[in-house]
Amino acid sequence: MTVVRDVPKQLFIGGGWQDAESGRTLSVDNPATGEELCQVADASPADGRRAVEAAVTAQAAWAATPPRVRSEILRRAYDIIIARTEDLALLMTLEMGKPLAEARAEVAYGAEFFRWFSEEAVRIDGGLTTAPDGRNRLLVTRQPVGPCLLITPWNFPLAMGTRKIGPAIAAGCTIVLKPAPQTPLTSLALAEILTEAGLPAGVLNIVTTTDAAGVVEPLLRGGQIRKLSFTGSTQVGRILLAQCADTVIRTSMELGGNAPLIVFDDADLDVAVEGTMVAKMRNMGESCCAANRIYVHTSVADEFATRLAARMAALKVGDGTEPGTDVGPLIDNAGRSKAHDLVRDAVKRGATVLTGAELPEGPGCFYPPTVLTGIAPDSAIIDTEIFGPVAAIRTFDTEDEAVTAANDTEFGLAAYLFTQNLDRALRVAERLESGMIGLNTGLVSNPAAPFGGVKQSGLGREGGRVGIDEFLEYKYIAVPVGA
Description:
Blueprint: H1 2-5, E1 11-13, E2 16-18, E3 25-29, E4 36-41, H2 45-63, H3 67-83, H4 85-96, H5 100-120, E5 127-130, E6 136-144, E7 148-151, H6 159-171, E8 175-178, H7 185-196, E9 204-206, H8 212-221, E10 227-231, H9 234-245, E11 250-254, E12 259-263, H10 269-281, E13 291-297, H11 298-313, H12 333-348, E14 352-355, E15 370-373, E16 390-396, H13 399-407, E17 411-412, E18 414-418, H14 422-431, E19 436-439, E20 454-455, E21 458-459, E22 472-480
Parallel strand pairs: 7-8, 7-10, 8-9, 10-11, 12-13, 12-18, 13-16, 15-16, 18-19
Antiparallel strand pairs: 1-2, 3-4, 5-6, 6-22, 11-21, 14-15, 17-20
């Protein structure tokens, strides 16, 4: 297709497109068909080092660039993204699988990070106060942390890039971006857009590779990268944290989730079902924020489950490029097998299938929207991030029971609760051990809000007014009074 053909397939280093040193390439496949879309450069550790050198070389000049210049580059990039919504949406659908309607929504969401941080670039502040003893003036400034390594996942190819690139550019940091090998095309398209918007050579460098460990570890241990921002699994996050320790690299991490969704007996069931559909089915369930464990009060559990199953069964599964498709394929066969194995384990332990749970025939990595009730407490689906269109429902009788179950996990990224009682809403929200809470809504992501979790769901925040803080250091200068 034209949108695939038009995207550069090389590494982007120092403002130019380059083949991988070895000449190797990696295959980018369409998960709806299993067919290859194209080949892109497959970087080696040496390519990674060249990208870091380019970022280091560009850092001083970029840090000295006026904030307004950085702001206007991001704003121009925002305008270009919006103007190319259809092409970018189709590109994401082809390489990742999500329906075009969801891809268009991601374009709007992802572009907003560039607009948001274009506005934050000119608001980087400091302070001037007098020391309590009156001897010194305390001058505080904020400076870019330095060259950054940004590692993004495959599930939101555009938004995960803009959410990290935006604040780094706004703060005056140079970047090496390593996108997921399943979905590199959107990131390469972003490089073209930012270049067109006026981003100087070397500020953004993109390295696509199937050898993530081999490329990334030397960069983290080499002493030139001063900031790592990673979105991915907790398992990989722990490894990266250990590698960052040697050179004390500043880190921010958005890791795994196991989001609880609680429906109380006084919830508006229309609102609760609609919110659950959003929290569960956005991006085919392939989201760290996806509702993973659904707890429903015993008195409304049957009605809720029946309504949810009807909504899920009515969704159209198919190629994301086809009109009317509600649910696209999962990213690959491994992702589909994981979801199906979790369903089979739950059924083996006594769960009831209300809809779905059968592997479809034919090509592609499709899995049907599935609703399970009667989940046994020892089912793997309770402790494992599903990353698929499977709703697992359990019941509870008391508020304490629901909160205890919701918090019984090492993760704490997002949580959802549905109730019409304001006191209960605030009380439960305060008790839930999660970085983000959806109250009577299934959507928490917003560029203007701080995104991130607690416990083993990560460190730091992305988006909101605090998002740029992850890329800035404080510098304190003591100035004697009278000097």
